[in-house]
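Per reviewer request, we include the raw input and output of the structure prediction for the construct analysed in the revised manuscript.
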Amino acid sequence: MVAGGDLWTRNSHLLGSIGFAYPEWADVFYPPGLPAPRRLEAYAERFPMVELGTTFYGVPSEQTVERWASSVPADFLFALKAPRTVTHDSPGLNPAHPDWRMLSDRVVRLGSRRTLLLIQLPPTAGPTALDSVLRLADSAPDNCRTALEVRRAGWKEQAVLRELESRRITWVHADLADPSEADRAPAPGEVLDGADTSDLRWVRLCGRHDAELPDGVEQVDVTERLRWWVDRFAADPRPTLWTVGNSLSGFAVPTLHRLADMLGVRLPSPVQPGLFDPGDR
């Protein structure tokens, strides 16, 4: 189902990290001595959204989701990844799968907060999976929207785009850069090239998930890569979600602040600044 309204599109840019509960962020991003249960509350004072990849590996409990809801402002945005048991481990993207139904229940428990469900397909899934994607998206709760990330060529057919547009399914633009290439603009074929199929754009700067970078320590200056992404959409300034993972530079927080500076978005200062000062460029 599609959730509409100005609440989604009144902000030009919303920025957030992929995850928030990293132990390495204690005393670096979070104030010294902050108890772990209060990290989301502190995070939400600095960023208006978060992407939670934990839901890919297991559906959170009712108590966990209710704690999330009570920790953030009413206009906070949660982006939740569909469970891998639904998108990767079982055929057909079945909307009757117990884990999908359970996650849908958890979305309802988030109440009126903005919620986006990410259907991330494996590299084996081609455009023949479109009907299954649409059935899954159609079964999502009324109080959320859906997004699609594909990792195989062939999806940019006009018939596919029309179906996604008719349901306002957001097609994700993704950057899976290895740290060795994240300090420059992407070469052709190095990003998952999406298409704008709704009134909302989502750019996932997640980096390569198996990259061995210490969370909480910025290792790579990704300024040039961020500039490439910002410039790419300058001519079409539709509302855009930007989520950044630690795997891109080692520490998502200073990367998000550098991105915010480029976009003209004001964020509260981080506890510890990044190693690479964009003002030096």
